[in-house]
TrEMBL record, chains A, B:
It comes from the Bacteria. GO terms for molecular function: acyltransferase activity. InterPro entries: SpoVAD (IPR010894), SpoVAD_sf (IPR038369), Thiolase-like (IPR016039). This is Stage V sporulation protein AD. It comes from Domibacillus iocasae. Pfam families: SpoVAD.
């Protein structure tokens, strides 16, 4: 099941039976509104704090995936998830409501694929029949914690990105119909010495490149094996940086097959600067939009590479650089 | 490999080839000083911040485990770990230095067994030959974040616990000699409505009881199957609460076989109030003291139940209750 040094190949090809995706008002106004199961017009979700709203996003995504998969709560054996908030309280609090045994993860914006990789490994080894995995973020809760409260109105440079308000969850099983998880490559921590928290994409790009190249080597395939290689939230700047790195390394990835979730979710004209970010970015775009396109037959094989910046407000204040990571998971459908 | 609803039984019985345990000055003065591989007389570890010292603790524990296991850095395929600091930066930064692919976890003080459970599953399914898993905490870094800077001199009630400064790591493999990981039970989030962050043990006790009882049911064994059932950091108060709950539920756990790492690590007279806590508490006591006693033949089968309080300073300030979790892993040696 191990290919190369850090890639898992799943011989049982765990099935993504169903997914749930939830978004906020900014996402409802974006390019992919039709791909969300549930959209909220109010950033507060009728809760008394942004953190409580954040928790509800994750609960709803999980409940939606169960509903679409035709499962009751008691049938879900494990939930693997995480978010960006200190001590990942939105996810932990949601898992109290959801009731299933819980494996808390922290991979910043790479959490979606960290969870899908581990979840697929658990199902593949027959250590669960049904499990949920997902990730979430809430723009105002994250901005308040990492930068300034949004009410402060601080200006941002064009390299900054917009944290997605939303959640995406996938229900995995060893049976049923749907896209299948075929392999995963776990990322190393890559730190190129960047220190600007308003340029996460640039900092994360080398981590994405490292993981993609390791994946191709470990599986011994060409980039052309995939119809689409999609990163999590590099944004415009990070996307360009990563393309430059591939060129420099002689990795034959074509611009047409290489996209970024952070550049898909919003419309031209929405004030998102370099693009979207946040754990919910890849979680909602992949579990909504991209799997929908797979089911329509547009892609047979995709490689999702969720990217995460492993800084904290404190590590930034202490003058530390921004270590980054990327986890890659391949999903296949049809044939 | 799945027993019952949420217990994994590892047929390959992954081996704990070697461990590394590191402690600070308070631990050096404690009951288990002889069981640490490395003790620091200075809380700063010659670093310029407590968070950097925290990072070094985890690095050293991992390096010590590799050294004792006779492995080079490049042979370690994955590191699974986490800590209590926002965005688990000490662990992530350490994994940059260590270089191996990294799976970040958040389970608060339950992280040690969350990592050992997942690590054993990965090795058991032949998805890694060698991996490291561990957890760490630093008293002053944690106090500063969760309560007050220690320099403030705030008084605490007798239910409060003392966060361990230290780190414990285990090197797992499918070969070699040593104690073996035989099963794991993943915890559910349990919240009994407690809100006092100075009484974590009391809040965590019901989660420990829930996981232990689920483990015994899933594996269909009596408590007497284990020579020792040891919780992570319930402390005196939580330990008593959990014994009361076992009695109430008719679970036949004897006081002699039921201990708590948080009540073992320090001496009588050290000002630790209800006992020790922190992710490093169970990690250092189990990977140091308890495995040493197993190797001397004192125990053949132990069940380690690491307990975690999933709150954040913000969730406490917002008036939320304290959700808790416990993950259990059985370790066997000899026969």
């Amino acid at each position: 099941m191990l290919a190369g040094h850090r890639t898992w190949v799943f011989d049982q090809k765990p099935v993504i039976m169903a997914t749930g995706t939830v978004g906020g008002p900014f996402e409802a106004d974006g390019m992919l509104a039709d791909d969300f199961d549930l959209l909220h017009s109010d950033l507060w979700l009728e809760q008394e704090s942004y953190e409580k709203a954040h928790k509800v996003l994750f609960e709803e995504a999980c409940l939606k995936a169960m509903e679409k998969g035709g499962l009751r709560k008691e049938q879900v054996q494990f939930i693997l998830g995480g978010d960006l908030i200190n001590q990942i309280t939105p996810t932990s609090f949601a898992c109290h409501t959801l009731g299933a045994p819980y494996i808390g993860l922290f991979g910043a914006c790479s959490t979606s694929m960290e969870g899908l990789a581990l979840g697929a490994l658990i199902v593949n080894s027959k250590s669960a029949k049904y499990l949920l995995t997902g990730a979430s973020s809430h723009n105002a809760a994250v901005e308040k914690q990492f930068r300034y409260p949004t009410e402060y109105g601080g200006q941002k440079p064009p390299t900054a990105q917009w944290t997605v308000t939303g959640a995406g969850a996938a229900l995995l099983s060893d049976e049923g119909e749907g896209p299948r998880v075929t392999s995963a490559t776990i990322g190393r921590v890559v730190d190129m010495g960047l220190t600007d928290p308003f340029n996460m994409g640039g900092a994360m790009a080398p981590a994405a490149v490292d993981t993609i190249e390791a994946h191709l080597t470990d599986r011994n395939v060409d980039p052309s094996y995939y119809d689409l290689i999609v990163t999590g939230d590099l944004g415009k700047i990070g996307h360009e940086v990563s393309l430059d790195l591939f060129k420099k390394h002689g990795t034959a990835i074509q611009e047409e097959q290489y996209k970024d979730c952070g550049m898909m979710i919003y419309r031209e004209g929405q004030p998102v600067l370099s693009g979207a970010s946040g754990p919910a970015c890849s979680a909602t775009v992949v579990y909504g939009h991209l799997l929908n396109r797979m089911k329509k037959g547009e892609f047979k094989r995709i490689l999702v590479v969720a990217t995460g910046a492993l800084l904290s407000p404190l590590s930034f204040q202490q003058g530390e650089t921004i270590p980054c990571i990327a986890h890659a998971v391949s999903i296949e459908f049809g044939e």
